[in-house]
Amino acid sequence: MSSNFSSTLSLYRTPRNKKTDSMNDTNVSMSDTVTVSVLNLPTEAKELLNCYRHRWTDSKRNEFLEQLILSLDPRQIYFVSKYLSFKQQKDLVGLLPRKLALKILSHLSVRGLLIACKVSKRWHSLASSNTLWKTKCHEVTIHVPVPSKPNWNVQCVTCYGDKVATGSADQTIIIWDIHTGVMEQTLTGHSKGVWCVQFFTKHLLLSGSFDTTIRMWNLRTGQTTRTFFGHMNQVLCLKLRGTLMVSGSQDKMAKLWDVGRTLLVHTLSGHSAAVFSVDMSEDCQVIVTAAGDK
């Protein structure tokens, strides 16, 4: 290289200051370095920088940089390498056309997309795309079991004035308005299907269930007030006369109850199959039963 370059280099090497020439100086953030104004340079340095930018050819610039690099000490080399590393960083995905960038991000998991949102504003815009999230939602399959047949089946019905009560295999009892057909109330408590219902009063209802129990319901509160235990199998039928009730069951028995006292009065046996129907005379002196034993 020509001698004028050497003299120029020696002219503009500033004296070292122990306080400012430490390794800590190289840790100044790159953003701070980039914003240093040319106005802070000495006049000679400004002239040299102007020549480098506007007068020299590429060949001359390369020669100058070569000599400049050779004159650097290790700490200055570290600073330059760190600065160049910062300058060479590029957001390759962010620089791509949006459609192509979205295609790349579509291969990320949901967790990956959430992390990508934190990289930069550009990535946040891409990773928040409705197109991406719509695809992710379609990838998630939620299996909702659909019964092959309805899980309800009305098994019995009874009326009292303007109210209708129905018992169902879905373990519920529903109270309806007979004039409007509007469902007024749903009673839940039985653990199996309800096979027979009968009103005791306007506001008290009796029900027999496959769970072997008979329940009395208060229609004002919708709660069970009494439970009758005694049958060993499904309760299939009921009949009320005053405060007395007869029930028939799959256990081949018919039972007479005092409803007012929740008391089992008598058990009637003799059938060899389930008792499907029961009735009682007006004076409660005769009970009639029908069963599957013919």
Structural commentary:
The chain is of the alpha+beta class. The chain has three domains: 39 residues, no CATH class; 48 residues, Monooxygenase (Up-down Bundle); 138 residues, YVTN repeat-like/Quinoprotein amine dehydrogenase (Methylamine Dehydrogenase, Chain H, 7 Propeller). It is 31% helix and 28% strand. It has ten helices and 14 strands. The chain has a four-stranded antiparallel beta sheet, with no helix packed on it. It has a four-stranded antiparallel beta sheet with strand order 5-6-7-8, with no helix packed on it. A hairpin with a 5-residue loop joins strand 3 and strand 4. The longest helix is centred in the first third of the chain and has 15 residues. The N terminus is likely disordered.
Give me a quick take on this structure.
By secondary structure, the protein is of the alpha+beta class. Helix content is 31%, strand content 28%.
List keywords for this structure.
294 residues, alpha+beta, Monooxygenase, Methylamine Dehydrogenase, Chain H, 3 domains, four-stranded antiparallel beta sheet, 10 helices, disordered N terminus
Biggest β-sheet: strands ordered side by side in the sheet: 1-2-3-4
Helix percentage range: 25-40%
Tally of separate domains? 3
Outline: rod-shaped
- In CATH, what is the homologous superfamily of the largest domain? YVTN repeat-like/Quinoprotein amine dehydrogenase
- What oligomeric arrangement do these chains adopt? single chain
Radius of gyration: 47 Å
- Percentage of β-strand residues: 25-35%
Count of helices? 10
Number of DSSP E strands: 14
CATH topology of the largest domain: Methylamine Dehydrogenase, Chain H
| Terminal residue distance | 125 Å
* Level-1 CATH class name of the largest domain: Mainly Beta
Estimate the mean pLDDT confidence. 82
The major beta sheet can be summarized as: 4 strands, antiparallel
Low-confidence spans: 1-37
CATH level-two architecture of the largest domain: 7 Propeller
Helix and strand content put the structural class at alpha+beta
Helix/strand order, N-terminal first:
HHHHHHHHHHEEEEEEEEEEEEEE
